[in-house]
User: What shape does this take?
Amino acid sequence: MSQKLYKINEFIGLNQYHDENELSAAYSPDCANMDTSGGKLSVAKGFTRFASVQIPGSEEFVALYMGPSLANMSTLAFTRRLVYKLSGAVAHWAVLHTFETPLTSGRIDFARAHIDDVDCLVIATGETQLMKYDGETISAFGSSELGSDAAVNYVTMYAGRLFAAGDALHPSRLYYSQLSGGGRSVEDWRESEVSPELSGGYVDVGGADHDAITCIASLKNQLLIFMESSIYRLIGDRPSNFIVERLCDAPESIRHTAFVNMGDGGYFMTQKGLYAYNGVAVYRTRNADFICRVLESARLTNCISAKTHFKLLFKLDLSHDRDCIVEYDLRTGGYMLRTGFTVDALWAFAGNVYMLNSNRYLYLLDSGTTYDGEPIAAHWRTPTTDLSNKGEIKALRALYARGEGAAQDAVRLETRVDSRAHGYDLSLMRGADEVAEVPLKDRGRTFSLKFANNEGHWFSLHAGVELLLACERRVE
Assistant: This one.
């Protein structure tokens, strides 16, 4: 009988693509609500109330906006019928605007623009004329006289102009305003009497009969244009040198909230996995298949994205009215799932991500140790393996780990050998400077480990994990 050590030197994230027997121990085929920053395995943070007051009403939220405090333009929450504003020295939510007709799709886009010497938020719904919020009131943007009354759904600022798309009457049309400044306004989409270079106008991307634009994104030196079946870009800074060129086929129709802007490029989530744009080409990321089983059961029609300094977040709809957030770590390329709560709207601001859900509170994500008082259920399962030696019998002897735990029984360890499972408590109360040892039993040809938090307790495993095995071959 020989002894072997099964080592997990670091933890990276979810991998549902590779065969578990060949999967590195750094990955998990089944995990949720864990954080693997720095190679440690820790229970992820939860969320806390950013504003202590509940938003009145009962309607589902469809969008959230949070911006700089200039002109009191801070926090707006949208339903299909109402717009709420968070304001006051003693925070409270008040109805700022009521749509004459409730929105059908609930798809809303935003762009910040300077209008009449005021920083304004331009709001696009696709079902109404554009609106503008000046920090005090919401009013109509533009007019038919200025050629800017189209009911567009997507807006962004690029090269000093407001660009807009998503007009149901002209689905492939990309509008652009006059160049702002010098008395000109982004509300004016007409030709300029001074110079054609200052004029507003439009271009039908791919031709007037082409498929619909579904998203426009302003990058540092170009405007990215997603259509139902293709992706284009606009380069240039004035009408005379505007060039619209086709980049590639689109993997699928991309919702505008599924794209994450990263300066010179960006990322977007599809049913086929995570894609990236590097400023020149669109490509499928090398580890896009790592979340293949999640995407098989998810719907992306309401995908919402956000980013922190190091992570991308994508909210997906799962079956049975459940939601999940897929986290992608830009440093390691690792994925993680966040589950156990619902998400109506997300917004990233100043490196933080905020959320609205059916509880009707504004939450700060990645904050606190609970889901607003509800325990977090976290787990990480190692790949099921036979150590590439199917005839060998492995007897589990002991597990060694270092780390920290918030309670004596914070970690529940489950071993699964062949089809048999045993449970143990792993205590990390002595701290990360000491090694915790758990005597184990059972024997078989395959095994896996599962670490879970008991009753929502926090724990963190440092410096990896080692499993001692006694191995032999059966001799008849």
The mean pLDDT is 94. The chain has one helix and 42 strands. The first helix runs from residue 292 to 296.
